[in-house]
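Dissemination and training. As part of the outreach component of the grant, students in the summer workshop were shown how a complex can be specified as a set of sequence lines and then modelled as a single object. The example used during the hands-on session is reproduced here so that future cohorts can follow it. Participants entered these lines:
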Amino acid sequence: MNAAVLSADLAYWAQSLLRVLGGLVAVLLPAGTIVYLFLFKMMSFMQSRLGPMEAGPYGSMQLFAEVGKWLQKEDIYPARADRFLFKIAPLIVLASTFLLVVVVPFGPDAWFTDFEAGVFYMLAVSSVSVLGILIAGWSSANKYSLLGGLRAAGQLIAYELPMVLAVVGVVIQAGTMNMQGIVVAQNAGSMFGWDGLGNPYVLTQFVGFVIFMIAVQAELTQTPFDMPIAESELVSGYMTEYSGFRFLIFFIGEFATAGVFSMIASVLFLGGWAVPFSWFGWTNLNDIDNWMNVAGPLILFTKMVVLSFIIMWVRFSFPRFREDQLQRFAWKVLIPVSLVNIMLTAIFKVAF
Amino acid sequence: MIAADLLVAQNIGFAIIAAIMVIGALRVVTTSNVVHAALWLVVVLAGAAAQYVLLAAEFVAITQVLVYIGAVMVLFLFGTMLTRARIGVETDLNNKNWFMGVPVAVLLFATLAIALNDGFGDQRLPSDSPVVSTQQLSDQIFGPYLLPFWALSFVLLAAVIGAIVLSRRD
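and obtained this result:
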């Protein structure tokens, strides 16, 4: 992080070390926040109970207790499992999360890498986790696991497409695939000449935003789309045979990906780390004061919490889709709607 | 003595990735398990993506990941896992005509080597080879190369419709 600010003083290895540490924070902090705030507390309140209360004030240390518990457990693998693949599968899923966070900008200079095709990269690496899930399902030597893995692959491929198509509208409107460029385009923009709010794309691309969030929900296999880990049918799908540390990695991966996707959604649709530039008289990226490098991550984090609140809210509120309904919804509703959205966006882009 | 424009880091990176790709490619055909073979193929394809990154062709590299690793290999694995993927060693993977592949591979390699050597000879990429941005690429595709792009789209559309027609039972 803070590459441009720090590059003058720090050697390459020190910058790299900072980036690695920043990446760990950017992945683990959202995961911890989501698990404690939403999975422990909000779910409990929605179900008229208190949730964890003993460990620390309001159970806030429960997370560390849980991690300690998972770390102590025995590392079990099935006798007939493909041992090497069984072991690396959770790591592939987690690696996909770390690859995702690399393109998220946190401030004017606080980014890991300023990929020119950032949006495209994000879509490409998010599909790598499918490989890990398939490998996990197959290498467990368990029919339920295999079925869960296959369901996950079918679902993730189906919902990859609406996600790509929903993002295309944003890319057309911003005129760039660079995440930083999309943030600038939103906050330097104006609506009908009024620039008090910039031009957050959640207003102009509302259809795209809804489709993107639905697709994210499906990519995360959160509840309306949790066929791959449906506990009443498949025990817990591709995760059935995993315990201890490896289960913990899957668990962290799931919620960290939820956090990272929320960050990406807030970059694409809610204006990302920035405030509307007109508030402080900025016009482009170079005007921005240095304090935004500190405030930016906090603003992005707030937006991330709001969006992951929506993800978790939907998760705890809706029953599960049936497999055929799930596929029909993706192919017959989301994809045509997003194609129409692209067409309309392109027409408006040319017209105005 | 190492010349100044030899790009040492890039060459070392290239060599490491190339070695991984060669080992991966050999393991694809020698491993005794279908799923392992498919996963070694993933290693080879990811290596190709890494080589594109070394050539500063980020769009092609990302496309390689998106299309081959994210879609084609997932479909491969999906298919094999649905039908015949056993865990452990399988004995009947090779059929008795496997050696026919050897002359084909040698011939292909020879053709490519001769064609490349003939075409480019001792030309070298400039050491500060320009980064081809995604924007330049799309300007080319939707400008001078629009007609071939359309033609390709129609071929793909025909393939999709053909697949649907073949797989429909009614």
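Residues 3-351 of chain A form one domain. Students were then asked to discuss how this feature might be tested experimentally.
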